[in-house]
Design goal:
231 residues, mainly alpha, Rhopdopsin 7-helix transmembrane proteins, 7 helices, globular
Length: 231
């Protein structure tokens, strides 16, 4: 069963995620950042669902195991669409929203098929390895896409403070999770990796709450604070 540390971080992260939605509503930004709020609401619902399955069935039960892996995959997909929402905001002035949506769906489908192919080659035929592989691959895809988006931000000299803050926090989040997955695969016998994801999960809602409370929708960063890249 989870200990005091696990429950403390779990409750803190859930409250912070709910706080992002509340801050977004208070700042009248819920619809504009709908995909970000969708991810936070899904994360809160998942936390509550995991707690219900944990108390009813136990940590080692099949019910909790399947719910955990499926909910993790759904959350990763929601976070993926949150990233695509950032792409739409950055490229909205170019009228490229439709192309971004089409590209995101194709990339999501390709990642799902690749994950299935990896698991299908193994001896295991359980669904949970596929779900785990899908989540892991989506984190690496998200990491690459976030850095590509940051390159576009620098190239286009995007200065909207909230957008920049959201993208930077996503980059840090994906980087930490991708590093955790990689280290876990390289050193599977080290048990400390299990403590990192809960701590990493608190960083994103903290950064998003800060962006919503600290900056107005029209707030801009000074161009000198971004790397200068010629068009």
């Amino acid at each position: 069963m989870p200990g005091p540390f696990d429950y403390t971080v779990w409750i803190l992260c859930t409250l912070l995620e709910a706080g992002v939605v509340v801050c977004s509503l208070l700042r009248h930004s819920f619809r504009r950042y709908f995909t970000l709020n969708l991810y936070m609401m899904a994360s809160v619902a998942t936390s509550l669902g995991r707690y219900v399955f944990l108390t009813r069935s136990g940590l080692a039960s099949n019910e909790y195991t399947y719910f955990y892996y499926y909910s993790d995959a759904i959350l990763t997909i929601c976070l993926y669409f949150a990233l695509m929402g950032m792409y739409s905001l950055v490229f909205e002035e170019l009228g490229a929203k439709t192309y971004v949506r089409a590209f995101s769906m194709l990339l999501l489908a390709g990642t799902a098929l690749f994950s299935y192919g990896v698991v299908h080659q193994s001896e295991s035929r359980m669904v949970t390895p596929y779900v785990f592989e899908l989540s892991q691959n989506l984190y690496f895809v998200g990491l690459v896409l976030t850095y590509l988006l940051w390159g576009a931000v620098l190239k286009m000299r995007e200065t909207r403070a909230r957008v920049v803050q959201f993208i930077l926090s996503l980059g840090v989040y994906f980087s930490l999770y991708a590093a955790n997955y990689a280290l876990h695969n390289i050193y599977p016998n080290i048990g400390y990796w299990m403590y990192l994801p809960p701590l990493i999960s608190t960083l994103l809602p903290i950064a998003w709450c800060y962006a919503l409370l600290r900056f107005n929708e029209d707030a801009r960063l000074a161009p000198a604070r971004l790397a200068v890249i010629p068009r």
